[in-house]
Please model this.
Amino acid sequence: MKSLSMVCLAVLACVSGCSDRQAPVSKTPDSPRLFDTQREALQRAKGVEQTVQQQSQIEKQVIDQQGD
Model:
């Protein structure tokens, strides 16, 4: 009796382990996208880079005006 129970349990485990059903994926609009934080950091860095380039260009113009 005990061996029959073990065989049934083993068969049940194998059958349920090979099931084609997948767990449902919840797609809520509130959930953040995978790399949103990295994208936001990249956009901020691009903004800082643009500000630095503008400031550098202004300084270059001031230096050129002082040299004339």
Notes: The chain has a mean pLDDT of 82.
